Structure formats: C-alpha cells, structure tokens
Amino acid sequence: MKTKRIILLGATGSIGSSTIDVVRTHRDEFKLVAVSALRSADRCEAIARKFGAKSYVGDDAAVRAVAENDADICLVATVGTSGIAPTMLAIDKGMDVALATKEVMVMAGELATRRAKEMKVSFLPVDSEHSAIFQCLGARPSAEIDRLILTASGGPFLDGPEDLSSVTVEQALNHPRWKMGPKVTVDSATMMNKGFEILEAHWLFGVPVSRIDAVVHPESIVHSLVTFRDGATLAQLSPPDMRVAIQYALSAPARLKSEREALDLAALGSLTFRATDPVRFPCLRLVKEACEAGGCATAVLAAADEWAVAKFIAGEIGYMDIPRAVEGALAAAPKMKCDSIDSVISAAEWTTKWLERGFKK
To answer: What is the pTM of this model?
Structure first.
C-alpha cells in the first residue's frame, strides 16, 4: 500500500502515544506530517522532530494543525468537546477521520456523518469496540444487522465498594485493564464512556440506539459483537491493546504484520459476561434519556459530563455528583435545535454556565 500521510491530534495522550508506536513500527506505510497537543510542548516538539513533522501546541493547536497541512487521515485523539472543530475542518478538507474522541459523535454525530457523506470521506473507528464492529461488518449493509453488542470491562467499581459516594479520584483512575487519560478513565468508571460509545455506534453504523446493547466483559478480550438478521453473531477478539485498533484504522482494509502478543484461548481458559447494573451505573440511563429527548440534549449530556469529571478530578465534587450534575443539566436544559456546529457549541456553553451557577454538591 502507498504511504499514508497522517495528522495526529492529541499526540501526547495515551491514544497519541500508542499511535506513535504504530507509526514507528511501520515507517514505510505511515508518515506523520503534523502533531498537536493542548499542553506538553516539549513532548510534542520532540515527537515532531523525531518524525519530521510540524508541531502545534495550545488551545487552537488542533485546528491549526488541520488548517495548515494536508493529509490522507486525521487521527482525532483530543479530549472532550475540543475535537469537534478540527474534525469538521478535516472533513471539509477531504481527509478521512480516524476517530478516538467520542464527544464528536455524541454532540455532533448527525452533522459530522452528513458532511462526511457529502465530502465522500470515511470515519475510521479507533475505539476498540467500534473497530471490532467495523471488522465484523466488512462490506455488509446495515440492513443485515439485527443488534450491535458493545462490551464493557466494568471498570474499577464493578463489584464494589457498596457505597460509591466515598470513591476517591485515585480509586476512579485505577482502571483494571486499560491505560488511558484521566477523563476517559473516569468515564469508564461511571460507564458514561460506554453510553457515549453506544451513541457513536449509532452514527457510525446507522443502527438505532434501541438495537445497541452493552454487556460487561471483565477480561476485555471480546471487544464487540454483531448479531445479524439470520441469527448469526460475529465477534472480534484480541488482547486488550489499543494499538491493534489504531493500526487497523490507519491501514484498513489492509492488515499489517504485528509483533504484539497473539491471543491464546487455551491460556485464558474462559470468558465471562454479565448484564450492566442500572443502579450502579446510572449514566447509561442518562445517555438513553438524552437520545430520546432529541435536539441538543446529547450535547448537553457531553458538556455536563466534561464539566463534572473535571470538577471531580480537581476534588471539588464527589464521584456520585457526576451523574447528579448530568441529570440536573438535562432536566434544566431548554429545548434547543441542533442543526449547526454553532448550535452544538451554544448548547455546551449554556450547560457549563448553568452548572457553574446552579449546581450544588
């Protein structure tokens, strides 16, 4: 395959670091042309020097990296709502988007997928769950799908403690399977992350939310399953290593050789699954309620979660205040149209202002 030019947004985060490892391993296939970071200027510039890429750092770094460079693929691994503007700009410039930032689809999924279709560019899933579905589907039409089943590790609080109100930041950041940034790690603990993934799967694969399920799978070996209308179910399995999904997003439909650990089913012995607990993980319910509400409700959902997780990590609110803040913002939000990026941004700004003014822990 020809060398693919890549812009990497969020180069110093966990996804960015794994992407760098993939590019380093396959230098003949991938060429970094630009990297960006919100902070960590020294690290970002060191990456750029090593790969002969341009470096961008600061609040507008991601947008500038896309605006000032051309590439085949833009890999978006920024945090929260900051991924929306550079994603839309990359689409408008005709780049395929390898998407790791869930908030893009949660807040602006309809706008982004419609624009991508108009520009004839593709979304390439980077999350292991969506990559699994992508691989299971191949070229099959969405009409053949009966259900999508996303798996969740259950995070650090699957089996305890009984009282989650006393959970500390350190406990919430201690994920049993994945090494991720703090925002995504807390979202994994609350399962808001899984709710975001359900919404993302809806827009990526054209399947109604009512036909997308989540099951707890602590081993994180089966990453997602697809049940087809004839009753057959296909699954994608691999060790819990984000580089597997990242590499396929960049190389698809080709599969490149990897030196990473192969799956040993005999050594695993067994794989387990269980239903999600709606009492322990209320964020899954809130995601479905936001989806049913329509308009800009999912933008409110994502913005409220971003605010609440930041406040929790800073020690300003408790762990169970996260779903309380999200539920409060959804209940208070006026009905808002969501027919442009400006309306999405306005909904997010309204949410932040309302929480700053009115949320009581």
So the answer is: 0.91
